[in-house]
Amino acid sequence: MDTPDIQREARALGDPTRYRLFRYIVEADHPVGVAELTDFISLNHNAVRQHLAILKEASLVVEQVETRSRPGRPALLYELHPEAAGTWGTNGAYAWLAGLLAEAMKDGLSVHDVGYRDGQRRARAHEGLDGDAAMERELLRSGFRPVRREAGAKTEYVLERCPFADVAVTNPTEICQLHLGLAEGLADSIGELSVDRLVRKNPRHAGCRLVVSHGLDESPR
């Protein structure tokens, strides 16, 4: 992480109230709304929103619009920024990776299969979204910085960051199989996409490409 980024984050977390809000968001097992944070911190909504704006500007949290089917204005929800994971006392991508590898060993699964199972679990967090939107959100939440490109019945996601670059340099096949499985599990659970392929690039420079088809396309993988 660059020094200016660290300084910006440190300034944002230097306020005790803002730090408490950050820790609440980090430790929650779901995206958190302003009302919940207001109840926790006992401040008015405007004060909480101001603190959240600073955390968002520092790239410590991300903001998303609630997916809802009931009447009313969707709420804004907040969760840890994927690229801040592993800093300031938070669990990072490598903790998630270690957990999945331990799960694979315990259950006798391949890294692809344990990734697929995790993709199925993660699909539940994207209920109500269409296939492309769910895939893009999951790639964002996982820290890949996806750039989405439409090509007829296919969508290509160029992954501009590898959150596991250090491990992927020496174990590219295992790491990529894990993420291919995750994408396939997510796509199959959503039911609107099928994964065509994952094109691997140098993890230090990123640029891997995930290609998916819409509908019931049965392109060979």
Structural class: alpha+beta
**Coarse shape:** globular
Return the average pLDDT rounded to an integer.
88
Please tell me how large the radius of gyration is: 18 Å
- Helix count? 9
**N-to-C series of helices and strands:** HHEHHEEHHHEEHHEE
> Helical amount among residues, as a percent range?
40-55%
User: Strand content of the residues, in percent?
Assistant: 15-25%
Strand line-up in the sheet with most strands = 4-5-7-6
Describe the structure.
The chain is 49% helix and 17% strand. It is an alpha+beta fold and 221 residues long. It has 2 domains: 3-84, Winged helix-like DNA-binding domain superfamily/Winged helix DNA-binding domain (Arc Repressor Mutant, subunit A, Orthogonal Bundle), CATH 1.10.10; 110-214, 2-Layer Sandwich (Muramoyl-pentapeptide Carboxypeptidase, domain 2). Helix 2 packs across helix 4, helix 5 packs across helix 6 (111-123) and helix 6 packs parallel to helix 9 (172-190). The protein starts with a helix and ends in a 7-residue tail after the last strand. The model is unreliable at 217-221 (pLDDT under 50).
